[in-house]
Structure formats: C-alpha cells, structure tokens
Amino acid sequence: MTPARGTILLVGLGGIGAPAAMILARSGLTGTLRVCDDDVVDVLNLHRQILFGQADVGRPKIEPAERLARPGLTVDARAVRATPETIDELLLGVDVVVDGSDNFATKFLVADAAGLANVAAITAAAVEWRGTVFSATGRGGPCYRCLFEDVPSGPTPACADVGVMGPLVGLVGALAADAALRHLRGQGVGGELLSVSPAGAVRRHVVGARTDCALCGTTPRITRLVRAHYTQGLGASVGS
Hints:
Largest sheet: 8 strands, mixed
Number of domains: 1
Radius of gyration: 16 Å
Shape: globular
CATH topology: Rossmann fold
Strand order of the largest sheet: 3-2-1-4-5-6-7-8
CATH architecture: 3-Layer(aba) Sandwich
Mean pLDDT: 89
Low-confidence stretches: 233-240
Strand content: 15-25%
Order of helices and strands: EHEHEHEHEEHHHEE
C-alpha cells in the first residue's frame, strides 16, 4: 500500500475527532497531525471520546492528544476553535482537513476555507443513529455546498439535544480517517458521500458539482470568508 505522507488538520476532538485522531496516528501516517480544540475533557463524554480516560477529565483535550506523537509523526496541538479569525492559519501547510465539529456553522466555515485554499476537506457528521462522511478534493467541485447549499436558517438537531450513539461516532471517525488517508495517497474521490444508516449499513454515493454553487460554481459568490455567514452555532462545542 502506498504510504500516506503529509499534514492533516483535525478540527474537533469529540466523538468523531477522538477516534479519527487515534486511527490517523496509528495508520503509519508520516508528517504532521495538527489538531485544534479549545474544550476540556468531560466525564460525561468518555464513553464516546475514546482518546481520553478518567485521569484526563478537566484537562484541555489537546494535552492527551499530544500522546499520539511517535517517530515520523509530529502532533501539532492547538487550543483554539476554528473560527473565521483562526481558520486560515490553521490551514497553512495542510494537505487534508478532517472536520469533526458538531454544528453546521463550523462545518461550512471549514469547508469554505478549505475550498478557497485548495485543501482537500473531509466533513464528518453524526446524530442519533445516522452518520455521513463527505469528501471534497479542494480542486474545484464538487464541494460541501454542492451537497448542502448553506447554513440552515432555523434550528437543526444537535447531539446535545437528541443524542448520538457512541459506536456510530467511532465508525464515522474511522471512515473520515480512511478518506483523509486516501486523499494523501492520491486515491481520494471528490464528491464521495458515505452514509451510515440506523441498521449500520454504509452506502456510497457520488455527489455531482453544481454549476450554480456559491463556492465552486461557474460564477462563485464566496471569494473570501465573512464572519456574519458563520455566526450561527459558533458558540457551540466543536466536537460531539
């Protein structure tokens, strides 16, 4: 198998980001794993945030993440949230970004910033019994906005309200890590959407590029990041 070399940015060390970080670190990845999360470990989340243990409760999440470093892999841990003010710096030198955040505002922010910077983006989500992993190459469409046009204007289901199954986020995190590694090996598929059903079945779909897409369409309307576009949900935690 072709080795995976490069720099991966992982946004959020929650239920999706925690297993994704562990898998990426143990995959033979050579280079840098950059992780960002400004939250602390909560005892109520230990059952699904499997990177952490009882001794980590109350500590910043990035501190246990630093244990993932090994010969050939540097862990660049940053206690910051992905916001319009920080995302460009977080993406510097990055080949692939994996978004494990738990709100649409952050997901669109990361996807848009990655698209503008020509960085491949893996957007992973899970709620209740369903999960999705979407891949964009960063070289034009299809992008996340070809799948979901914009940040929802009204309330949307969140893990804090409706819950999420622990095994599901582990599976979604694993699928997201695999997608990122495939991109580093030159095997990534733009527009690939993996969906996990309540029965546990993983289905693959291919999303086509939309010519009227605001980010990657023929006449893009998003050419820079404007904070007002991503304010909804930015006060929420970045990892489920």
